[in-house]
Amino acid sequence: MSTPYAPYPLGRPRRLRRDDFTRRLVREHALSVNDLIYPVFVLEGQGRREAVASMPGVERLSLDLLLPVAEDCVRLGIPVMALFPVIRAELKDERGSEASNPEGLVPTVVRALKKEFPQLGVMTDVALDPYTSHGQDGLLDATGYILNDETVEVLVEQALAQAEAGVDIVAPSDMMDGRIGAIRRALEDRGHVHTRIMAYSAKYASAFYGPFRDAVGSAANLGKADKKVYQMDPGNSDEALREVALDIAEGADMVMVKPGMPYLDVVRRVKDEFRVPTFAYQVSGEYAMLKAAAANGWLDHDAVMMESLLAFKRAGADGVLTYFARDAARLIQK
Ligand code: PBG
């Protein structure tokens, strides 16, 4: 004899999953266009457009062709574009001198973007790797070790050149000790009190940056060398909290974890511990993986793109740097 109640579960979580309206009603996290930062690669010259083989859909563009992309970002409501320069070989040297040239590519592009589209946030990378003949982010001593304090002095000059060109956010991605404090003091000294710093605080020595190094043309300079003497060990997570604590104390306005998807645990720990604006970078290798699988028909492009970006929000990120930014914004708008 069966009772109408006995064997049935008391809680049925599937009730709320049954219909789209309840799924939407109880959804905890969502991706908005306001969460997106779009990284772009910029070249010298006019009318130049080069595909990046390992990053389908990503191009290196000269300023004239970048302007319509910036306009598209404005139209889509993407808050910030992040600039990465492709520097020609003749301008690279041991010290990355071109990085602090006030008439160099990055300051020139920043001035043009801020003039044409003042409402679009512009962010620039502070690190020497696109500018050095050895492809490292800092200066080398006689043994090839990356010098810290000497590098910081050069980074300060680079950040000042960017700030003087009118950039909104400087983003030191070099992982030298003390660079956030040094840059913050220099910015204040020169009256750049509004320049925001987004610190690449927990940046790991990751193999997922490969396609980016192709894109900016530092891969060949770097050769077989790695960045393990300054970028973080992928085995560490407490250390990420110490890095973030230092950067906040030194004056960072926003912090970042990089790469993204393989490091969502770190994003969550940073957000829980500090409750500051926290960003994640879905890096070139992550983009390449998803693009390659989608191109083979193994994954649904739009579905994995949106799921991967939502995962950053669920992990506690306030925003994501992603090469998918425009595609995702277009889907959100629909
Ligand atoms: C430069 C820099 C790198 C990335 C952003 N800034 C490369 C590196 O550290 O070697 C990687 C971004 C990506 O892979 O998409 N310091």
From TrEMBL:
GO BP annotations listed: protoporphyrinogen IX biosynthetic process
Gene3D superfamilies referenced in this protein's UniProt entry, alphabetically: Aldolase class I (3.20.20.70)
Catalytic reaction list: 2 5-aminolevulinate = porphobilinogen + 2 H2O + H(+)
GO cellular component terms, semicolon-separated: cytosol
Enzyme class per UniProt: lyase
Record flagged with keyword Transcription regulation: no
Pathway membership: Porphyrin-containing compound metabolism; protoporphyrin-IX biosynthesis; coproporphyrinogen-III from 5-aminolevulinate: step 1/4
EC number: 4.2.1.24
Pfam families, per the entry: ALAD (PF00490)
Stored SMART domains: ALAD
Record: residues binding Mg(2+): 243
Active-site residues annotated for this sequence: 203, 258
SUPFAM superfamilies xref list: Aldolase
Single Gene Ontology MF annotation: zinc ion binding
Keyword line: Heme biosynthesis, Lyase, Magnesium, Metal-binding, Porphyrin biosynthesis
Alphabetical list of InterPro entries matching this protein: ALAD, ALAD_AS, Aldolase_TIM
Assembly information from the UniProt record: Homooctamer.
Sequence similarity: Belongs to the ALAD family.
Name of the molecule in the record: Delta-aminolevulinic acid dehydratase
